[in-house]
Specification:
Blueprint (H helix, E strand, L loop, with lengths): L8 E4 L3 H12 L7 E4 L5 H10 L7 H7 L3 E4 L6 H4 L12 E4 L6 H7 L5 E6 L9 E7 L5 H12 L2 E5 L6 H9 L1 H18 L4 H21 L4 H7 L6 H10 L3 H20 L2
Parallel strand pairs: 1-2, 1-3, 3-4, 4-5, 6-7
Antiparallel strand pairs: 5-6
Helix pairs in contact: 7-12, 8-9
Length: 275
Amino acid sequence: MAIDLERPLVLVGAGKMGGALLAGWLDGGVAPGLVAIRDPHLSDEIATLAKERGVRLDASIDDLAALKPAAVVLAVKPQAMPDVLPTLQPLVAPETLFVSIAAGMGADRLDELLGGGAAIVRAMPNTPASVGRGITGGFANARVTQDQKKLADALLAAVGEAVWIEDEALMDAVTAISGSGPAYVFHLVEAMADAGVSLGLPEETAMRLARATVSGAGEMLHRSDLDAGTLRKNVTSPGGTTAAALDVLMGGEALTELMKKAALAARDRGRELGK
């Protein structure tokens, strides 16, 4: 999706996720001169990228306010928001969209810290954004116009897919499934490799098998129009080895129930972070 900008795009915080978004925007055709970064702890990698591409690093809040940014993307940790957001209050204007990727912090609290009256999209991307395969759940408050929502969609889609949630209360569920989800998959690889070692495989071989299997299955899922359940059935021969393993994983819905408990814990922690 093309990102059409005539006014500046401000990135507040250029850590791993902010840096991934920045790379996606630049690769997607955003003019570097329209991008400004505000981050007192900028990594050498991002600083070098910014200088090489012509991204602004020295713009003051007053200078940016005069330019009326099209969007301000907030990519700092939730704990830093109470200190950072009040400094951005001069940027609040009807024509400026604020996009927050901080877990747990609701749109009303963000608006309060910005001094009120802000058009806010609360978003939760995940780490596969760093390879252009992320997915982001987004919620827009009542001040966000349709054009601003399209802009947010384009900014988020620069690093993968974007879906919209109408009920903000469900954003913590988005965090629990897709935001935290990559860690669940990585742990699955660890568990599969450990199982291979327990069966006598060398540790390196077991990890290579587990890692390639999960990444390959993920690519199959990405490319296929079939749902996950159908793909599972397609590789499960009745009475075969896969069926024997699935009898354990699916018996009494063991894995499903464990995943529900894990997601519930993540959702509840997200709610705690937002208080």
